[in-house]
Design brief:
Elements lengths: L2 E5 L2 E4 L4 E8 L7 E7 L6 E6 L6 E3 L7 E6 L4 E6 L8 E8 L14 E2 L3 E6 L1
Parallel strand pairs: 2-11
Antiparallel strand pairs: 1-3, 3-8, 4-5, 4-9, 5-6, 7-8, 9-10, 9-11
């Protein structure tokens, strides 16, 4: 079992920044990959970013590339999503997810087996 708790969401103006955190517990954090996904009202959940067990490999959706950065601190069992130059279309519930079956990151949501409850990010224009 893995428990994931996100924090850091909120309301920000367009062009601003936020940093999301996801604290994990229950299994050895450094033995699995992590991902971030988001879901806007009326839309399907979509991939945002992912990171391998060591942080050596990262992946991003085209829509956030160059603006968002994913990182992890295995000593703190935490993964981060730094979001810069935020746009109104980034408004969504952001969730972290654990891919405990692999150390390698994936962009596919079905490959993640544990999910956090999500944190709301709202970007005003």
């Amino acid at each position: 079992q893995v428990q994931l708790v996100e924090s850091g969401g909120g309301l920000v103006q367009a062009g601003g920044s936020l940093r999301l955190s996801c604290a994990a517990s229950g299994r050895t954090f450094s033995r699995y990959a992590m991902g971030w996904f988001r879901q806007a009202p009326g839309k399907e959940r979509e991939f945002v970013a992912a990171i391998s067990w060591s942080g050596g490999s990262t992946y991003y959706a085209d829509s956030v590339k160059g603006r968002f950065s994913v990182s992890r601190d295995n000593a703190k069992n935490t993964v981060y999503l730094q979001m810069n130059s935020l746009k109104p279309e980034d408004t969504a519930v952001y969730s972290c997810a654990a891919r405990t079956g692999s150390v390698y990151a994936s962009t596919e949501r079905y490959e993640y087996d544990y999910w956090g409850q999500g944190t709301q990010v709202t970007v005003s224009s």
